[in-house]
Amino acid sequence: MRVINNCRIDFQYKLWSSGPVISNTIFSNNVSTELINKMLEVKKCVDKKVTSIFEVLTYRIFISNISDIDVTNVFFRDLIPEDTRFIRNTVFINETKKRCVDPSCGFNLGTIYSKDTIVISFKVVILQHSKRIITNSSNSIYDYIYNTEKPPMRVKIKSNHTKTLVKMNLFKQINIGNKFFVDSQFPQINNIKEVETKVNIVNTKIVSTPVASTNFHKELNLCKLIIIGKIKYFIEYKYLCNRIREGNKKLTYTRGFSCFLLVPNGIQYCKIKNIEHRIENISYNLLNNRCFFIDLEMLIKL
Questions:
Q1: Are 283 and 295 in contact (CB under 8 A)?
Q2: Are 121 and 204 within one domain?
Q3: Which domain holds residue 209?
Q4: Looking at 132, 167, 202, which one is the last position of a domain?
Q5: Residues 44 and 30 occupy one common structural domain
Q6: What is the pTM of this model?
Q7: What is the pLDDT of residue 211?
Q8: 153-158 own/partner pairs: CB under 8 Å, 24+ apart
Q9: Where is the SipL SPOCS domain (predicted)?
Q10: How far apart are CA 199 and CA 256, in angstroms?
Q11: By CB atoms within 10 Å of each CB, which of 1, 91, 188, 211 scores lowest?
């Protein structure tokens, strides 16, 4: 459909001051605007409104031809959010798997027949340092013929926006207790003055099999992330010299530890950048003058 518009100006004038009044009308040039009839309707949805990091999201896009004619040369593109990563070979078009295609680069859909609908789905994984809200939309481009004697126009149509709230809820509090002995070459402990620690995460490993033993874990698609680390203890204690004067002695011990954290299976598609850890409490107990016990509470968070 084309809208054509012009303007008209009516005016009067005299050729000389005592002459008759002459009336005249002039018209402007025509301007035309092509009105594009809506031919495609694009709707997008996501399977999770609330999720956590390393979860897998499935996006579905419904592209419907609502016109009475076939729409040709349809091209689809979806710029996935920067806080997610596309999982390769997860694109399906009308339940048919399409390998080696990427929504960010886009791909051709061909012709969508009148009153027909194409369903596209693909999966992404939420990265570790994600924003709290992830939004996304899709674009479809197609040929629109407004004049059979001219090349078709390329028309772009955008879908609705989807939103997913990301919860930062992957954490665990652990207790680590160790017994320490003071070698006979060092003086006996009178009392412990200070305890400091330094934590170092050495390695991580994903284990999927032990978690699948309950229906609850099967439904949530969880796996275990094994965390291996070491703690360096810096101990300063007081000892008696000649039963009158006190002295200070510093010792250093290193102990290993391991724990696990339940995480979504999507972690296998990501690289763990860092694991946060924080010592929340340290308590110690002197068992005898050459043995003491240290218990600490540590928060592990992804």
A1: yes
A2: no
A3: 171-301
A4: 167
A5: no
A6: 0.73
A7: 47
A8: 153/34, 153/36, 155/36, 155/39, 157/38, 157/40, 157/42, 158/42
A9: 188-286
A10: 10
A11: 1
